[in-house]
Amino acid sequence: KPDNERGFWENKAFLDLHERVLAQWHLRWHDIALFPAGWRQTPAARRFASDLRHALATEFGDSRLVLVKDPRLSVLAPLWTDTLHGTPIHSAFVVVVRHPDEVAASLGKRDGLSIAHSRMLWLQHMVECVRATRTHPRVFVHYNDVLQDWRKGRRGERRSRGPEKPERGKK
Questions:
Q1: Separation CA 78–CA 128 (nearest Å)
Q2: pTM over 0.70, yes/no
Q3: Which of 10, 89, 107, 129 could form a disulfide with 113 if both were Cys (CB 3.0 to 4.6 A apart)?
Q4: Residue 143 and residue 153 in contact, taking contact as beta carbons nearer than 8 Å
Q5: What is the rounded CA–CA span in Å between residue 34 and residue 50?
Q6: DSSP state, 87?
């Protein structure tokens, strides 16, 4: 895209899937709105689960590592975790945190969103993400750290899995 020559790194298959499921509730990525009660048990959610399984198989096959980057995951994570529950894919989250003023400036420049709207959107995405991932392994990394050295996030991700089992005979 002209507004980001290096790209945003979202996988098109998952980006399109996320856009389609949001549209089922008449939402777009920049809407500040909550999903209706019971949204995770609707026909749209079941279609999403089926489409997600298909997209994962198509994009990743039997790969042992699956990484999907899309800010929409912040609000759609419950559908992902519902879908992946009971599958061989283990959910773990790397939550990239960027200062809300930086997000607001970026969204204002790129999309013409107001500072207030952008800050509310940031808050909604962060709250929903924290809520949806609280029972899963996760790590929070700062956006600038990812840009400077993405390996910092990998070290934090390893720590987020919990304590390692001690070797036999050691405490």
A1: 9
A2: yes
A3: 107
A4: no
A5: 23
A6: S
